[in-house]
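Submission sheet (multi-component)
Chains listed below:
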Amino acid sequence: MHGWARCEALAVAIVVLLGAGFSLPAMAAEKGLADKGEVLVRENCSRCHAIGLTGDSPNSAAPPFRTLSSKYPIENLAEALAEGIVSGHPDMPIFVFSPHAVDAIVAYLKSIQVDAPAN
Ligand code: HEC
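Outcome: structure written.
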């Protein structure tokens, strides 16, 4: 009796998941990428930079990420992140990210910009 009830609950959960997946395919993928980027910047950048929509950077010299697009298109950062050029800043450690991680970080950064994108 108990085993059967659990089985039914699982079946319902699967149907719900499939339903959600089919209703917003492209957006879900894009959101997943930005979410991954958020995790990456939280782990690697948040001890100096403000990474969210509000708040000040822990390191006052580091610009909050939501303001980056006022200086240049976020796409320009992709190359820098992949090659470690961002490390040109003295206080900042060297980061080199995989292409997929770069896509994720760029997707996240785009999602939080307060100014209209410069591109
Ligand atoms: C140890 C502190 C520290 C960490 C960690 C850090 N940054 Fe920075 N970052 C800085 C500082 C300080 C500046 C400002 C340097 C300057 O203006 O010369 C800066 C500037 C920047 C800029 C602006 C560059 C420009 O030309 O205006 C970008 C983009 C950036 N950081 C991205 C990142 C990313 C992405 C990460 C995580 C992968 C990260 N930073 C991690 C300290 C840090």
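Remark: The chain has a mean pLDDT of 78.
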